[in-house]
Amino acid sequence: MASERIVRPGLEGVAAAETRLSSVDGRAGELVIAGFPLEELAGRATFEETVYLLWRDALPDARELEAFRRELAERRAPAPAVLEVLQAAARQKLPVMDALRMAAGLLSLGAGGAAPDDADAVLRLVAAFPTIVAAYARLLDGRAPIAPRPDLPHAANYLYMLFGAPPLPERVRALETYLNTVVDHGFNASTFAARVIMSTQSDLISAIVGAVGALKGPLHGGAPGPALDTVFEIGSAERAEAVLRGKLARGERLMGFGHRVYRVRDPRADVLAEAAERLYRAAADTKLYELAGRVERTALALLEEHKPGRNLKTNVEFYTALLLHGLDLPTGLFAPTFAVSRVAGWIAHCFEQQGQNRLIRPDAEYVGVKNRRWLPLEQRG
Ligand code: ACO
Q: Could you give the CA distance from residue 174 to residue 158 in angstroms, rounded to a whole number?
């Protein structure tokens, strides 16, 4: 008899847990982070404030914030073995996400000799991700890594380790807005991966390594690089339609558009578009920003023609690309910089999973044959 179970490929529309961390309303185009509408929080909070808020469900007061900032800042330098692995990875020119995945696993090694306990590990993960990414980016370019500066805030220190000079305030603000915007987003694939691992009562570092692996895929965190490549390939606004039509005709997806949950414009796209505009204006060069706007408008019109009624709209990745490019980050650093933020969200979800744990173990509907009979090797073929 056929099973009555409903199979939902991709688990679309299935709520697998309750969360207080973020609310994603795909129809209204609203994102709430720990109670704050994204637009209220992203452009105001420091990244440390956002992490504190997610983990403790309240904004810190000045004393709490200073203590939290210090706890993170003193854990930025990972164990020396991390640098050795990054050097080996750089010799093989591995992508940054692969290097980050390998190095994240090594954070089980405490920097000071003793293995970190859970409380130490969560801080160490958030603190060390920027150090790993920045060190590896420099190694890939044949340059020496720059040691973290504990006196700088988290976002400013990341830019300092990448470029070697304390960054301008508007660049720090742009990066913090980005980090706050992407810190958490419901049960996306990498967060779910982390929670599945955590639900087995495995350890936190394993959960984060799994999440990095999930984020690496182009359908999740790997889209902003290709989204920007498309803008560059187009080069000037009058070529937008021909280039984008060509891609759609070849069956390619337009990167930076479409979303599993949003059926309207991703609210993160607006926040990041505004932050990007401010950044490009501060640098007195808005050419690329304006071209991206033209490309976006053309893409939206063509996607409506291509999939009428499917509402394929701009997603977070399109303006992520523009913003991070404006901060002089190469495209290879876009997904890793996403991870620099999202690691805090993954950890918050790991806490939640621990607090309400039930092993995540869905079913699969078997559609293969049954009742096969074993044939000895000499009788096969
Ligand atoms: N360009 C062209 N066609 C598209 C696009 C796109 N960007 N997105 C969806 N479609 C088409 C699909 O080909 C599909 O057509 P079909 O029914 O003929 O097969 C139809 O629209 C429905 O798409 P789905 O694949 O069902 O949508 P899904 O919810 O699985 O996909 C996804 C969401 C993966 C993000 C998709 O829109 C996509 O591939 N976008 C481009 C990649 C991208 O920007 N990824 C970043 C997402 S944001 C994030 O994860 C942080």
A: 13
Q: What local confidence, expressed as pLDDT, does residue 224 receive?
A: 73
Active site residue 317: yes
Return d(Cα 224, Cα 227) in angstroms, integer: 5
User: Is 259 a residue of the active site?
Assistant: yes
**For ligand 1, atom 12: residue with the closest CA:** 253
The confidence score (pLDDT) of residue 1 equals 52
pTM over 0.90: yes
Out of 49, 154, 317, 349, which one is annotated catalytic?
Answer: 317
| 167: DSSP letter | P
Phi, psi dihedral angles at 33 (to 5 degrees)? -110, 115
Sign of CA dihedral 125, 129, 135, 141: positive
pLDDT score, position 110: 80
C-alpha–C-alpha distance, residues 214 and 294, integer Å = 32
The pLDDT value recorded for residue 3 is 66
Segments of the chain scoring below 50 in pLDDT: none
State the pLDDT at residue 2.
Answer: 56
- DSSP H helices, the chain, are 38-41, 47-56, 62-73, 80-91, 96-106, 118-140, 154-163, 169-181, 189-199, 204-215, 224-234, 240-249, 267-282, 287-306, 316-326, 334-355
